[in-house]
Each structure stands twice: as C-alpha cells, then as structure tokens.
C-alpha cells in the first residue's frame, strides 16, 4: 500500500469509527432519556427499571469478550461490521416491546452488538495512522459518544414522553445505514494483516498478563469497572434524580444535554492533551475533580442555573476520564493480542456499567434521596481516580515506547 493510500485508509477508518461511536452514544443514552415515558406506560417497579437499565450493559459485557477474542482471529473489520448491524437491528426491535420484560430482553441483545463493536473501534483507530498519535485519536473518536448522547437527550426534549420509541428508532436506523457502507468502504487493520503469520496464538487470554503486562491489565480492569459504574449510573438515573430533586422534565433533559456536550468537549480536549506536554496535568485535573464535583452536585441549592453548571462540569470530568481510559486500553498489548486485551478491559468496565444502575435502584429503594445517593458515589470516584492515576504512571513509559512504533507489532 502506498503512503497516500495508507493515509486515505486511515482517514476513512477514523471517520467510520467516529460515526459508529456517535451511534453508540445515541443508543447508550436512549434508555435513560426514555425512562420517563417507559415508566408512564409500563409502570415498572424501581427494581425492574434498574434491571432494564442494566440489561444492555450486561449484553455489552458478553459482546466485548466474544468480539475481542474473535477479532484476533478473523479480523477487526468483520467483527465491527457484524456488531454494528446487530445493535442496529435489535434497537429497531425495541419500540415493538409490549411490556417491561420484552423491553429488557430487546436491550440485552442490543447490548451484545454494541459490546462487540466498541473494542474494535479502539483497536482499529489505534492501529491506523501514526503510532505517535494513537492515544489522541482514540480519545477523539470516543468524544463522538457523548455527542450521540446529547442527540438522544435533544430528541427526548423535543418529543412528549409517550413518544419515547422514536429515540430507539433513530438509534437503530443510523447503524443499519452504516453497516453496508462499512462492509464496502472500511479497510482491515494493516497491522493485523501484517501479523497473521506470527506464531503467537491469537486471542490468547493468558498473554495479556505476560511480558510485564499484569499490573497494567489489572489497573485497566479496575479503572474501567469503577469508571463505568459511575458513568452508567449517571447516564441512566441522572434525569430521574434531577426531576425528583425539583427540576422539570424539560430542565432535566436540558441539564443532561449539557452533561453530554461538556463531556464531548472535554473528551476532545483530553485527546489533544494526551499528545502534548500537558498530558500529566490533564489527567490529574480530570480525575482530581471527579469526586469533588459529585459532592458539589449533592449539596448544590435547587436552582436550575447552578445545577446545570455543575452537571456540565461533571460531564466534562466523567467523559474525559472515559476518553483517557479508552486511549490507554490498546497501549499495553501487541497487535496479535490487542483485540482480546482491549475486549477484556471493556468487558471489565461493562460489569461496572451493569452494577451501577442496579446499585442506584437498590439505594433508591432503600430510601436514599438524590443528594445521599450522589454522596454514596464519592468513595467510588476516589477509588477510580487512584486506579487511573496509577495506570497513567504505569503506561507513561509504554506510551513513549508505543510512539516509536515498537508496541504495534509492526
């Protein structure tokens, strides 16, 4: 492949991955912003609503494990295209659900598709283009996810609660359109093609702990678990918590849009910072402010301007934290095991994203008001920050090594 063709392939890969991340953002946010209409129509208990929120993320866990392992054997492109088609198809089936149980099953199968797609986005973007810019590229692709979430919140703001099905229809149509386009236009990872002849067993789970990778792998898992527990609890429950705290449905949806817009901007910013001299400061500020903002939101007066500002800043911190973690995930692993390495990290996060909404449901059922529930999350945020800062320390040398192209297996 010529240099020009290689650059064109890298650009098209980046664009396709941004579009898929945008679709995932819509779908991942859909359950939370549709919760009001779903509750009014099906009248689920708090426990049932928590299970509904967690169903997609449980599917994500299974999909990430399976997709990551398959990607090291049959390739990144095949897994990504198939996964995007699956989550589009099952998202379109969600609006025909007739009760909370059928709705929950539809979300479970949608999650399987999203789970298979997400590790492939990280692997493909990391393996395309300049190795020195791999981490910033991954963070910038992730930034499309909160933009998609803001789109879902905007749809919910423009429609009445009984029209909640439209959110899932939009979330399904877009990936269905993308699937054939990627099948014909997306190039397979050149790094994956170049290592097909290597003798190391593909998809070797034990290999992600070998070669000095054990500590980094464990820190990745812990950071993803705790970080996604926080993120998914907030994505799914924040609109309801804000309404129960005195905001109108429109004000809560507006605050949720701010959460996503702030998160998208911060994810883009951290992407730029990871490639420059301010990398360490960006990481420290991101994780240092996470527990502080939860405390501020829990104690903020019930005034829309103040709450919206704090929610915006919280979105910045939470989403920038996720962008950092996704940027770090491909670094420790050579090409031949990158799929299973990234897939296992994403799967660890999906356990957290499953636990988060269920945990909020349990705490709310136990009588915890919004302020107390947010304070319950502060120790989790502190744990997340500690693990992530240790991860940043561990990967700094690997990042420099990675920038020289030696960890790409190229």
Quick gist of this model?
This protein has helices at residues 3-42, 46-74, 76-93, 100-127, 134-158, 165-185, 190-194, 214-244, 249-274, 279-299, 304-328, 335-365, 370-376, 378-403.
What does this structure look like?
The structure is a single chain. This protein is globular. Helices cover 81% and strands 0% of the residues. The protein starts with a helix and ends in a 7-residue tail after the last helix. α1 crosses α8 (214-244). It has a single domain, classed as Growth Hormone, Chain: A (Up-down Bundle). By secondary structure, the protein is mainly α. The protein is built from 14 helices and no strands. The relative contact order is 0.16.
Reconstruct the topology from this structure.
Blueprint: H1 3-42, H2 46-74, H3 76-93, H4 100-127, H5 134-158, H6 165-185, H7 190-194, H8 214-244, H9 249-274, H10 279-299, H11 304-328, H12 335-365, H13 370-376, H14 378-403
Helix pairs in contact: 1-2, 1-4, 1-5, 1-6, 1-8, 2-3, 2-4, 2-12, 3-4, 3-6, 4-5, 4-12, 5-9, 5-11, 8-9, 8-11, 8-12, 8-14, 9-10, 9-11, 10-11, 10-13, 10-14
